[in-house]
Structures are given as C-alpha cells and as structure tokens.
Amino acid sequence: MPLLSSDYNPPFLFRIGHFSTVYSGLIRKVDGVKQKRERIHLPDGDFLDLDWSFSQKQTHKVMILLHGLEGNAQRPYIIGSAKQANTHGYDVCAVNFRSCSGEPNTLYRSYHSGATEDLDAIVHHILNSKKYDETYIKGFSLGGNLSLKYIGESQNVPQEIKGVVSVSVPCSLHSSLIQLMQPENYLYAKRFKDHLKAKMREKQQLFPSKISDADINNVKTLKDFDDIYTSRAHGFKDAMDYYQQCSSLQFLPNITIPTLIINASNDSFLGPECYPYKEADANKSLHLEVPNYGGHVGFYGKQNITYTEKRAIKFFNEV
C-alpha cells in the first residue's frame, strides 16, 4: 500500500524525539489493568510467563502484546495497550519474553529479535484453548520486529491471525544498531548494555562453563553482547549473522495479513533501512505510517491514551 498519511500532532514538548522517548519509558504511569499470570512450558523444556487481562464483556477476540528489548508485560506501553484493548472488547495476552518476567529462564538461551518459535508456541497455546476466533498481534520495537518476521517467514501462519500492528520497529537490526551507537543515543545504549550484562551474570551462575568473567568484561557495546552471547546461545555465527537472519525487512514482501507499521521519523533508534517505503508500496497488505513525531515508542496522547493505542484499535477494527 502507499505510504499512509498521519495526523499525529502532539504538543510542543512531545515533538522532541528524546523527550517523547524518555517520558514514555520512565515517566508515564498507567493503572486500572488487572493481570492474571499464566506460565506455559515450551517444547524445549523452558517456560514463558503470560500476563492476561480481560474485556468486561465476553469476546472471541484476543490481542497478543510483545514488548521491546529488556521490557516486560508491566511496561506502561504494554499496560496502556492492554487497557485500550480490554475497553474495546479484546482479551489481552501480554507476553514476557524468556528471562523478562522477574525470574531467569532455565536454559542457556534467552530471547532475541527473531525468536519466532516462541511466538508460534504462544499463538498455538491460545488457539488450542478454543476460546478465540480472531487473534491480533501488536509488537513494540524488538517485539515489532518479531511479529513481522513471524507473519512473513512462513506460509503456515494460522488463519485466526487477522491483523498485526508494529510500533517503532528496527526492521533492519544492523541499521538500528548503528543508530544506537551514535553519541546522541549513548545513555540509551548504556542502559540496555548494563541490563544485558546483568542478565549475563545471572546466566553465568547457571552455566559457568559457557560464560566466563572475560566474556562479561569484553561486552563494551551492544554489538559485543550479540557477538559474545546472543550469537553463541542461539546458533548464529556472530552478531552480523544474527542481524541478517533476524531482520524483518527481508520478510515484508511475503506478508499477506493486514499489517501496519508505525515508525516516527524522529525515532533516534532507527536508521534509514528501518523505514520500508519500497516494501510497503509493493505489498497491498502492508501499511506504513511515518509520523513526524513520536520518538521511540513515545507517541503521547490526551487522557493518557497514546496515539498508537488508539490507532491500533482503529486498524484492527477495520481489517
């Protein structure tokens, strides 16, 4: 589809990308959502924790929410999305990726941008419950890339999946990495790196023969983490191989499910290759919206309802 126009026009402060990003991640609070945790066991013996919230009226629709790097199902952008979905007649399954629910996962491996086998297990777990006829997926950042890869890499996507919305998506992981390593993003990159190194130390306690002190000390950048841990733990040659295999950009031409990507033009995390104009123009199922403002997952809205929370509901109701 051609590029969609956007009417997102926030107050002045929220036109500043970094302000929007920081407000959304560290300042915004959302309440009024009661979650019920379910633990599922995966084919490889590990587990995932799913945090459910429910519409007040009986429904046959469910929305799966996927968080970003080092997020969880309690982040404001997830809770806010769940609240709007519940209000509009969707039950919600908010996913905590492996090691993100407050408890380390049991295997050497963890989560990453392309771990679609975990998303597939979640989808089939939900479908096997026989409660829902319609399934929708909304992913943010890393979770957005994961959702796009999932519906584009296979011809066997369950027919119950009716729509996907992906927000602030690093469609090219390497392009996003280059951006994150720019000086303006130093504090974000350092925060991510520190969290990931802490996870490495937890893994070291469980798998001391696979992670040495030297490995942890050698993680100076996010790419180092992917070279030293992500690639080794998940079967990639190195970080670049991981980025190449798991970037959703290459899978966008294969998408046949109605899909909306919302990437702000002032998102400091996204490089040029993260804006798939050509791919959207060539695929009638793929919609691309590039607002001038929004930062990274920072789309402010009145009454504490963000633009993308309202936009996702509208898109899903129309498909």
Explain the overall architecture.
- The protein has eleven helices and eight strands.
- It has helices at 17-27, 76-87, 116-128, 142-153, 173-180, 186-206, 213-217, 222-234, 239-246, 277-282, 307-318; strands at 36-41, 47-53, 61-66, 91-96, 134-140, 161-167, 259-262, 286-289.
- It has an eight-stranded mixed sheet, with helices on both faces.
- Helix 10 links the parallel strand 7 and strand 8.
- Helix 2 packs across helix 11 (307-318), helix 3 (116-128) packs across helix 4 (142-153) and helix 8 packs across helix 9.
- The two termini are 14 Å apart.
Topology pattern, helix = H, strand = E: HEEEHEHEHEHHHHHEHEH
* Structural class determined from secondary elements: alpha/beta
Q: What number is the mean pLDDT?
A: 97
Alpha plus pi helix count: 11
Helical proportion, percent range:
25-40%
> What Rg, in angstroms, do the CA atoms define?
18 Å
Largest beta sheet: strand ordering: 1-2-4-3-5-6-7-8
Strand content: 5-15%
Uncertain residue segments: none
Q: Tell me how many strands there are.
A: 8
Distance between the termini: 14 Å
**Major sheet details:** 8 strands, mixed
- Give the quaternary arrangement of the chains: single chain
Overall shape: globular
